Amino acid sequence: MAKKSTVFFCKECGYESSKWLGQCPGCKSWNSFTEEPVIKKTTAARANVGNFSEPKYLSDVQMNEDERTQIGISEFDRVLGGGIVSGSLVLVGGDPGIGKSTLLLQMCKLLVEKKKKVLYISGEESLRQIKMRAERLGQFAGDLLLLSETNLDQIQSLVEKDKPEIMVVDSIQTMFKEEVNASPGSVSQVRESTAVLMHLAKGLGISTFIVGHVTKEGVVAGPRVLEHMVDTVLYFEGDNTASYRILRAVKNRFGSTNEVGVFEMKNNGLTEISNPSEYMLQGKPEDEPGSVIAASMEGTRTMLVEVQALVCQTYYNMPRRTAAGTDYNRVNLLMAVLEKRLGIQMASCDAYVNVAGGMRINEPALDLAIVSAILSSYRNKSLNSKTIVFGEVGLTGEVRAVSMAEQRVLDAKKMGYEVCVLPQVNKEHIKVNGIKLLGIRNIRELNSLLHE
């Protein structure tokens, strides 16, 4: 009996099956399986240009002093872990029109100014279109190599010949290998194309950036193995109603995965926001019930965000609950704690919680600010506008310690805040002058902080 020459792949997550399935066992999506031919040989084998057949002792491996290259965009460098690592493979994903190509073209502009040899490969735009976008960003001080091509065999030959230091591929879903009998963007093509680019990056020491399209769920389209093959996965996020963009690392072999970079989209490209806290707090109301400022950590950076809550009498049999910018289930849990420990009848009230500015925060240190905002709105009493709040809340109402508390307090002081409400456990280890520290052990103590 002849061996089966086709297999079925899930278009959403890359799950492989020998037969068609209605529901994917991996991601649980329906009608997502597509039939594609089996690749009998590894098409990326020809790209293995380096000599890795001989093992080496760890002590014999040499590292260059210039192992990292600074881009010149501090927010981008921060997310990458300090700059571009030589021979790294970076995947950049994001919604259509969010600014992925603009950000990478700005990166190329700064790198060619540093006399780096950069190759920009586009499978979606012509050379004239790239030129038009480049003119919006300003004058290029160096020469940038441009290539409009989707055939990966031709791209591979050109890269092996010219050996650029940095390469950008926009996008991986448009690339194809002639040996793979499948359409561009399919699971097989994306996997094999990424394998070729990985061998080129590692074998020739070329730092490679790959642009990836995302699905409606917000994850990179194609097989899940794509994210495992690359060194770094970055997501460029933003709200259609806001001008700012957030660059977030969800995987990074060379740095922290908690760092974020904040940008603002303008006519001449993306501009860094060096102080996101000040940007997010623009237009904040003063001494209004239900408004509380919280100190959250994103990697090594403190983000001050406004937590808003609105509690009002319900006219329905089942009260409404809404949470924007934070975890909905966590908000429900905290409201249950308030009802049990403080005797507040939340069952007769609608409750709406919002992290203003469009940021999404899931850190436990936001708990105390959410509780304070809900309590403030329910009592119709405000918290001092120069007060900042952070701490984790347990099911018994206790306020638990959080990490990096001293840095949160220092950054709050720099922003002009005069009072900091924090867990008592953290207060005992913080020695900061110029700001009043109020340590609390239980949420019952929040009542004394509210005023008319």
Quick structural summary:
With about 450 residues, the protein is α/β, with parallel strands linked by helices. It is about 25% helix and about 25% strand. The chain has helices spanning about 75-80, 100-115, 125-135, 150-160, 185-205, 225-230, 275-280, 330-340, 365-380, 405-415, 425; strands at about 5-10, 15, 35, 70, 85, 90-95, 120, 145-150, 165-170, 205-210, 230-240, 245-250, 260-265, 270, 290-300, 300-315, 320-325, 350-355, 385-390, 390-395, 400, 420-425, 435-440.
Describe the structure.
With 452 residues, this protein is α/β, with parallel strands linked by helices. Helix content is 25%, strand content 26%. The protein contains eleven helices and 23 strands. The protein has helices at residues 74-80, 100-113, 127-136, 152-162, 187-204, 225-229, 276-280, 328-342, 367-379, 405-414, 424-427, and strands spanning 6-10, 16-17, 33-37, 68-69, 84-85, 89-94, 118-122, 145-148, 166-170, 207-212, 232-238, 244-252, 260-266, 269-272, 291-298, 301-313, 321-324, 349-355, 387-389, 392-393, 399-400, 419-423, 436-440. The strands form five sheets. A nine-stranded mixed beta sheet has the order 8-7-9-10-6-11-12-13-14. The chain is globular. The model is unreliable at 42-52 (pLDDT under 50).
Record keyword descriptors for this entry.
globular, 26% strand, 23 strands, 9-stranded mixed sheet, 7-stranded mixed sheet
Q: Strand content of the residues, in percent?
A: 25-35%
Radius of gyration: 26 Å
User: What general outline do the C-alpha atoms trace?
Assistant: globular
Which percent range fits the helix content? 10-25%
Gap from first CA to last CA: 83 Å
The major β-sheet equals: 9 strands, mixed
